[in-house]
Amino acid sequence: MNTRILITSDLHQHIPKWLELVEVVKSLKPRFVMIAGDLLPKDGGIGGQKRFFGDLEGFLQRMVESADATVLLYFGNDDFNFLEGELDLLAAKNLCVHLNGRVYREDGFVFAGMNLVRDYPFRYKHYCARDEDLIACPVQFGPGFTFDDAGNRVEIADLPAFLADKPSIPEELNRLLAALSQDEIAFLLGRQSGAKVSRYEHFRREPGLRTALAYVAILRAPVTDLFPGLYQQVAAEVRMQAVKLAKRLKRGRANQIVSRKLQSLAAILEAEAC
Q1: Is the pLDDT of residue 99 over 50?
Q2: What is the per-residue pLDDT across 191-249, written as a single tens digit (0 to 9) for each?
Q3: Residue 40 burial (CB < 10 Å; 0-12/13-18/19+)?
Q4: 24 exposed, middle or buried (CB, 10 Å; 0-12, 13-18, 19+)?
Q5: Number of domains in the chain
Q6: Which one of 106, 133, 167 terminates a domain?
Q7: pTM
Q8: Which of 60, 77, 106 is the last residue of a domain?
Q9: Is residue 167 part of a domain?
Q10: Mean pLDDT over all residues of the chain?
């Protein structure tokens, strides 16, 4: 039996293209839909990209429901990197597979996601990386910048050093090629098969603490990077409780101990605004 795979990219230039994609998926009913970067609007800055996720969720929902398709996607070099956690939240709703830096297996197919690009003259540099002997493009349109995980703009003082400190494009491709299979990860986790690993990786099941720490040991990455959608959900719940506790403390008698507690709670809430 033939498997139909639909591949597209760069929908950011004209957002109504998303509506056209939904209709094409509905008509052709592909088994897989691959959207290779530049998902978010170019106009409207950070606010415009943040607001688009509500529309994106609707588009993905319609594709999944109309064709029973698996949608695989990742950001491109015009999408702001600190918003990647929003893709993980959509993946947690089984609307897509966030493929950046990951390997996904289904129906005998293996998909590997890599969105690094050679350095170019444009200033936003988060996804730029070394490519063999090329480090930095000799032509630049101004100082480079990226964003930290909280969305703060970070100027790049030394572009060659910034790029040299990252894995190169060949190194990242080799890492993906050498990625452990789900059954191999399951073995390291002490599981019988890769089925449960698949549910963890695609956010259909929350890992326990021991399992999450085992992933940290296996994949050598912070747990907040491995399960960012779950982390954001838990952090939001903690902040809601912090607001309630602060109101309760303020209703009581003020003293130095209460003041220190309120300062601690304020630090938790400030993390949301960063």
Answers
A1: yes
A2: 655 555 555 655 556 778 888 888 788 777 777 766 767 788 888 899 999 999 999 99
A3: buried
A4: middle
A5: 2
A6: 106
A7: 0.66
A8: 106
A9: no
A10: 85
Residue 264 forms part of a structural domain: yes
Domain containing 68 equals: 1-106
CB 119 within 8 A of CB 127: no
**CA dihedral (264, 266, 268, 274) positive or negative:** negative
Give the pLDDT of residue 204: 59
For residue range 33-85, list pLDDT tens digits in order.
999 988 999 888 888 898 999 999 999 999 998 888 899 999 998 999 899 88
Q: Please give the single-letter amino acid code of residue 166.
A: K
**Radius of gyration of the chain measured on its C-alpha atoms:** 21
- Whichever domain contains 11, its CATH number is 3.60.21.10
Percent of the chain exceeding pLDDT 70 equals: 88
Distance of CA 153 to the CA centre of its chain: 18
In a domain, 39, yes or no: yes
In a domain, 237, yes or no: yes
Do the beta carbons of residue 181 and residue 194 sit within 8 Å?
A: yes
CA dihedral 225, 231, 236, 240 (to 10 degrees): -140
What sign for the dihedral angle of Cα 183, 188, 190, 195? negative
User: DSSP of 96-133, one letter per residue?
Assistant: -EE-BT-EEEETTEEEEB---EE--SSSB-TTEE-BTT
